[in-house]
Amino acid sequence: MRVLTGIQASGKLHIGNYFGAMKPMIELQEKEELFTFIANYHSLTTSKNAKLLKELTFDAVVDYLSLGIDPKKTTFWLQSDVPQVLELYWILSKFTPMGLLERAHSYKDKIAKGIPANHALFSYPVLMAADILLIDTQKVPVGKDQIQHVEITRDIATKFNNEYGEIFTLPEHVVNEEVATIAGIDGQKMSKSYDNAIDIFMETEKKLQKRCNKIISSSTPLGEPLEYEGCNIYNIASLFLDDERKVELQKRYKSGKEGYGHFKKYLKELIWNEFAEAREKREYYLNHPDIVRDILNDGANKMQKIADEKMAKVREAVGIL
Ligand code: ADP
Ligand code: TRP
Hints:
By secondary structure, this protein is mainly alpha-helical. It has 14 helices and five strands. It has helices spanning 15-31, 40-44, 50-67, 84-93, 98-102, 105-112, 119-134, 147-164, 205-213, 232-238, 243-255, 260-274, 276-287, 289-318, and strands at residues 2-7, 33-38, 75-78, 139-141, 172-174.
């Protein structure tokens, strides 16, 4: 099964991103033919600063490699390294009725938030369709906000295929309902926009401890048993624990011998240890940008072959000499 995931580089990754999106993706590469790319042309639609876009793009590449995207198993590339996608985007535009884009929620939401309307923002779903259709994607794992974009892709592909024959594979979206929404330090959905996130890559253990100390907990005095159910510290800690270790932690809560401060320390250790290997890899990649470039070039070369083959068929079908 050919699976495609596209990632917009949007800054520091937090634990919600990890458990909600990255871990399931990293597990996928063991089972499926996974294609993963950093969608920097898409990020351009909302970028204001060239330097920042470059940094965010590079950081996203490094973060994904460090956290477990394995270029030996997964085709991993940068969107802008495969410009064939822009040719397909143009050709697909001809099969995209205005009304289809005018109905796109994500466009309407962005305009409502005050982002100035421009053509790139409006035609964003056509570029996403090109990403998906270029490589005959069968499944696209997405968050709920992106389902409509996969539906738009199907509509465009159907219109094309009806006129020119079965050139494109119709993709399906996959929403992982099992993945729970991870709560932040205030108990609300963890999000970089709510200032309630715990980042995966904190610079120092001390800073991570400070962040964990900010987790809102109730104020049971030391010496009394604590309730783990509904406790933000417990909820985050349990993401890192198997069933046996969860029960151990529950016992510690009930024993009354420890207070929230102890559990915040314990949580810091869990997080710090979980990402120890990723942190080392990240240091390595940050210090070896040439190696990162080589990995991206390998991915782009693989993609170029697939893209050229597909584009030859598409050009032939529509009559581009
Ligand atoms: P944020 O809300 O911090 O801006 P994004 O919208 O960039 O996060 O999300 C990137 C990916 O991480 C998406 O697939 C999204 O579903 C997942 N994700 C983000 N926050 C959470 C969370 N709190 N719990 C589970 N998954 C999350
Ligand atoms: N629009 C997606 C997002 O914001 C990113 C993306 C771009 C994508 N192209 C894609 C996702 C193709 C899946 C397939 O999350």
